[in-house]
Design a protein that fits this description.
By secondary structure, this protein is mainly α. The chain has one domain (2-291, 304-331). The chain has 15 helices and five strands. A five-stranded mixed sheet has the order 1-2-4-3-5, sandwiched between helices. Helix 9 (197-210) runs antiparallel to helix 10. The longest helix is centred in the N-terminal third of the chain and has 37 residues, at 83-119.
């Protein structure tokens, strides 16, 4: 339990520093970074919060904290040496475990309901729509076959499937919008699959469960999902060669956000075209600023990961475990007279 609490403590204040660093980079260089780069900036935060065991380096961003007098005493919110501290430690772990169970149960319940919704969805059989689906899949160079279904229980378009994409459209949407708008919808949902955004979504939900007590972690996961949508929009815009087609995509987002109700589902298995808050204004602003450039390539945006990933590798969870085990060994080797 000491190891668990020490990991929670260390991850909490390190998350504050890492999120602060991302926000600082965005504030200084944000106007020069494209949507994909903004999205990739959040990935080290997600990795650090979701992964308990990373490679520890001798120095990093976090090591500066240890040189500031009194800071480590401030971030340490427990003392387990005394009996009172031990009781407090047990209570803290119990409260955290209850929160994890509650959040996990809600997430699993929502996921089960959504899977049942997919099983009851109707397969789209319109040949022209299926041909459009295949053309969009080839445009994004997706080798996996895609499935398209309709559901009356769904309010907004969504995509699911970690290994094979399944697009879920609200029942009747195909007949209410024209073919160009439908193409934009299909491209957007397939772009999520192409970008691997469903894997990112699973990690954000895992972080929400484990770090349910940490408002900074929850802020980070919501920021990641919003940045994910804008990066997906950028991937779709890369498929369009003219400004007219890109403008049509932005108009489609505006029209659908006004016509469709807000999404009420919260599951790790699907990404919806519009979230609960929509974030449509920022997405439209990002679309209007889009410019075709080599900087839009994900391999260049990936380079932004390196400084933050290196900075996140200082004394993670297994450091706490090895430190505790080392303390136990030292105590056992100490003679009784020296204690």
């Amino acid at each position: 339990m000491v190891d668990l609490i020490e990991w929670m403590e260390r991850t909490t204040w390190q998350a504050v520093m890492l999120v602060g660093s991302v926000l600082l980079i965005k504030a200084i260089f944000g106007r020069w970074l494209n949507a994909t780069a903004h999205y990739f900036l959040w990935i080290p935060v997600l990795i650090h919060l979701a992964t308990p065991m990373l490679i520890a380096g001798p120095r990093s961003l976090y090591s500066t904290v240890e040189y500031i007098p009194g800071v480590m005493d401030f971030v340490r919110f427990y003392h387990h040496e005394s009996r009172g501290g031990e009781h407090f430690l047990h209570g803290l772990v119990f409260v955290w475990a209850i929160g994890v169970v509650v959040y996990a149960a809600r997430l699993i319940g929502g996921h089960w309901k959504f899977k049942r919704l997919i099983r009851n969805a109707r397969q789209v059989e319109d040949e022209s729509v299926l041909r459009m689906l295949e053309a969009c899949r080839k445009a994004l160079v997706i080798t996996k076959p895609a499935r398209l279904v309709e559901s009356r229980a769904l309010a907004v378009p969504a995509v699911t499937g970690l290994f094979r994409p399944t697009l879920v459209l609200p029942e009747g949407l195909i007949r209410r919008i024209d073919s160009k708008q439908l193409e934009c919808v299909i491209l957007h949902e397939l772009a999520h699959f192409k970008n691997g955004d469903l894997w990112t979504l699973w990690l954000t939900r895992l972080v929400d469960v484990v770090h349910w007590f940490n408002p900074v972690a929850r802020f980070a996961t919501r920021s990641i999902v919003r940045a994910c949508e804008r990066a997906c929009d950028a991937r779709v815009l890369e498929c369009y060669g003219s400004a007219r087609e890109r403008r049509r995509y932005g108009e489609m987002l505006l029209n659908l956000s006004d016509a469709l109700p807000a999404n009420t589902h919260r599951v790790p298995a699907a990404l919806f075209m519009f979230g609960r808050n929509g974030d449509i204004k920022r997405r439209i602003r990002s679309i209007t600023r889009f410019k075709a450039s080599w900087m839009n390539k994900r391999k260049w945006a990936f380079l932004l990961l390196l400084p933050l990933v290196i900075g996140a590798q200082y004394k993670p969870a297994y450091y706490c475990v090895s430190k505790s085990l080392g303390d136990v060994v030292n105590v056992e080797k100490t003679p009784e007279s020296d204690r």
